[in-house]
Amino acid sequence: MSVAYIPVQWTRNKWFYDLALIALAVGYLLAFLVWGNASLDHGRPLDTQILRMRAFGSCAFFMLSAILCIGPLARLDRRWLPLLYNRRHFGVLTAAVALAHAGFVLDWYFAFSPVEPWVAALGSNTAWDRAVGMPFEAFGIFALLVLLILAATSHDFWLSFLTPPVWKALHMLIYPAYAAVVVHIAFGALQDQQNPVFAIAASLSAGVVAALHWAAATLPDDPLAKGQGWERVCTPADIREGFGRIARLSTGERVAVFRHQGALSAISNACAHQNGPLGEGRIIDGCVTCPWHGFQYRVSDGCSPPPFTEKVPTYALKIEDGAVWVRLPANPPGTPVTPVPAPEGQG
Amino acid sequence: MPEVVAEIAAEEGFALHPAKTRAMKRVRRQGVTGPVVNDRINVPRESYDRLKAILTNCLRCRPESQNRHRHPAFLVHLAGRIAWLAASNPWRGAKLWAQYDRIAWPDRLPCRRGPGPAHPPETGARPPWRGSPQARPAPALAQYRPGLRAQSPGLWSAGFQRGEASMETAAIIVLAAEIWAWAGLGVGLAFLAWGVDRVEPNARGAYLFRPLILPGIVLLWPLVLWRWAVLEAGRDRWQARHAPPRGLHAPLWRGLALLIPAILLAGLLLRQSGPAERAPVLLEPPRPVGAAE
Question: Is the pLDDT of residue B269 over 70?
Fold first, then answer.
């Protein structure tokens, strides 16, 4: 987790995850190259080069759609969380496939003139004033640039160096990038095709992405607590042993209140790693465990157990009038706070 | 020799047409679809001489008198021929452009609206690449003749102007990207050599991961410089690390959910063969501004 950085933190599970990903991608590409030409029905067979760029382009699109589904799926149903665990490797592989697609395009459509390929790619179509025949290439280039930025900043170093909120904001570029990819396809490859198979598959994937995001965005938010200094967050009976409860404070920050060994403690809901929702995790071996990547913190002081060094802020907590209250502002990360005993069923 | 060529062509999925196969030795002119390709791509001598003769006659007599084939837009026709020649031989192209610019076109032709921007030197030193194909530079964008657009704005179709301008813009974007990447490489090497040890405790003693983060620094070096400065100055706020931009998620997700079906629908409806089809337009050759209808 922390301690000295290594290039890639592979675990047994991540190996399986990555091998499965690579097998799926390679299988798709081979199938497309072998059977794609017959099923695309272009009137006459495609050149090998064009078939190759279509294979890699469509593969990258379906991979990106799958990646985007993971976030809302994990919010809607916790059983999808294992997919989120290694989502970054998925993203890096997608960026590589998309880069191969761009390489094949440059090496075919823009390779045989004295003009530099990139200049030709950027300058050959600038008909921004029309929909049919618009420069869909530019949208693809934008999306590729975003994918490369996200892949290049996927090491944990970047989370720590940029801080998780900046990193997360940067990685939210994936949403405009996905919209750009959909433009790239809708006004690029789909304009050319007579056979509806790819159009249906692409529309279905993009439609599932859109529907899942809509469903996850309309999930009810945590109840709002208002006030200054001490803020009421919930009642002790709301919290089960070994689990937590999230509440949003008037400052907008989220607190996670946990019950461990019959006593309540409050820590920040944002994991120090990627700002994952600690309150949705549970207590394992005496530590709150982040549901995203398994980072752990002691509830009493918000510190990761040695040798790890991550810390999250803690909050002073009290039980009054049958309710749980926490005090703003939060204590600096790693400040010990004595847990407040609250037998289950009280309140 | 022909067998070898036929084999190479067959490997690439082509077949030679026996009736159209010629062997042209080094000593004679090797012409392919017009241009000559002996040493490097060039135009045949007589094409250049003929064009030069027409331009010279345009200077001596009335330009219209040289329009023997009654081209509807003679000026454009000549410009096109010069551009074709300049594409393979910029040096000769520059000489012809210089002649072209001196031609006294009739008043109604927009070509006489004052001098255009500087054009390639008329009788400058020979370019260093001449005669040595290896040293040939990539054709500069100036060969697209920026002056022409300024001189005769009404004459050129919008598409031609746009194409020329967009190539210039594209070249500027690519140049800017190169400068950005070189600056990023400089920042990256400096940061990885000593900055990262100063601001990132977990990086001390860890070296294998450093090449892995170099591409990110090249792409995002201003952000790296900013964080580096903040951490060096000790201005990092711990509270900010625990305040994820969660408020952004719901509106972004809703926006995405609405945008994607809209784009797909637009892409499926707006097609050349679709319901919003435009009637085909017969393209006409460009006419000079004010020319007789």
Answer: yes
Q: Do B212 and A155 touch (CB under 8 A)?
A: yes
The sign one gets for the Cα dihedral A182, A187, A188, A194 is positive
For the record, the structure tokens of A266 come out as 């409050």
Beta bridge partners of A243: A282
Statement: residue B224 has pLDDT above 50: yes
DSSP of A144-173: HHHHHHHHHT-SHHHHHHH-HHHHHHHHTT
Of B169, B201, B252, the CB nearest to A175: B252
b/e burial code for range A114-140 (CB count within 10 A of at least 16 → b) = ebbbbbbbbbbbbeeeeebebbbbbbb
Alpha-carbon torsion, ordered A230, A236, A240, A241, to 10 deg? 90
pLDDT at B106: 64
* pLDDT at residue B115, as a whole number: 39
The model's confidence at residue B121, banded by pLDDT at 50, 70 and 90, is: very low
Q: Residue A231 has which token pair?
A: 């803020």
- Write out residues 139-178 of B within 8 Å (CB-CB) of A: 139, 162-163, 166-171, 173-174, 177
Alpha helices in chain B (DSSP H): 2-11, 45-60, 74-88, 90-102, 146-151, 158-190, 196-199, 210-232, 238-241, 249-269
Look at residue B129 and tell me whether its pLDDT is greater than 50. no
Cα dihedral sign, B99-B102-B104-B109: positive
Q: Please tell me the least confidently modeled range out of A157-166, B94-103, B110-119.
A: B110-119
Q: Which one of A157, A160, A194, A273 makes the best mutation probe of the B interface by having the most chain B beta carbons within 10 Å?
A: A157
**Hey, is the C-beta of B259 within 8 angstroms of any chain A C-beta?**
yes
Which residue in B190, B214, B229, B234 sits closest to A157, CA to CA? B214
CB pairs under 8 A between A and B: 209
Average pLDDT for A254-270: 90
* Cα–Cα separations (whole angstroms), residue B132 to A224, A317, B38: 76, 82, 12
Contacts of B215 in chain A (CB under 8 A): 148, 152
Give yes or no for residue B114 having a pLDDT over 60: no
Which of A196 and B212 is assigned the larger pLDDT?
B212
Q: Which residues in A lie closer than 8 A to residue B266 (C-beta atoms)? A: 131, 186
Q: Residues B217, B181: contact at Cβ < 8 Å?
A: no
pLDDT band at A12 (very low <50, low <70, confident <90, very high): confident
Round to whole Å and give the CA distance between A274 and B289: 63
Residue B208 tokens read as: 């294998």
Q: What is the overall mean pLDDT for chain A?
A: 86
Nearest to B151, CA basis, from B288, B284, B286: B288
Element spanning A284, H or E: strand A282-284
**Quick one: what percent of chain A has pLDDT higher than 70?**
92
Q: Do A165 and B245 touch (CB under 8 A)?
A: yes
Confidence of residue A212 (pLDDT cuts 50, 70, 90): very high
- Note whether B249 contacts A: Cβ–Cβ < 8 A: yes
**Which of A1, A5, A162 should be substituted to probe chain B, the one whose Cβ sees the most B Cβ atoms within 10 Å?**
A5
Q: Write out the two tokens for A252.
A: 């907008």
Q: Is B243 on the interface with A (CB under 8 A)?
A: yes
Give the tens place of pLDDT for each residue, B151-165.
Answer: 444 444 454 555 667
